[in-house]
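Service request form, structural biology core

Requester: graduate student, group of Dr. S.
Request type: structure prediction, single chain
Budget code: on file
Notes: please return the result as structure tokens.

Sequence provided:
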Amino acid sequence: MMEREAREIADWGGDTYVEIPITNTKGESAGPLIAKLSREGFSLNITAMTTLDQVETVAAAADRGSRTIVSAFAGRIADTGVDPLPVMAKAVDLLKSLPRGEPIPLRLLFAAHPHLLAPVLQVIHRVISTFLIKQAGVKSTEAATGAVTLIQRFGSAANLNRHA
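Core staff response, request fulfilled:
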């Protein structure tokens, strides 16, 4: 089922990443599917990882030439009572062999330390807001932009939102 859906999504074309949860609804590892699809050149985003064993599975399964995003969820790790910091640090070490085209260490850093993301989002918001206000042809004192929407969309796209 997951393979069929992955192939359908990949047919959308462009720069499409196929999101594959590390386990299916039966709790079975997606490792063999990750290996197969990455060997075939699919761009993958492996999600819902909460253990180092799962990260090791992806590191072993992903083809070294494939584009693979690894989404370890620090919020879910913390929810289990485990400090996510050492887990994330070890995950970065495990993933060093994957292509460096994806910002894996940065994603893991922000996920483990959400307070570091706030200053980055403030700068991004300021730049985008200034651009939009100038495009609208109004003065900055007469306009306001949606910081919450920007943060929600950025956090979601970067997979940094806390997952319950």
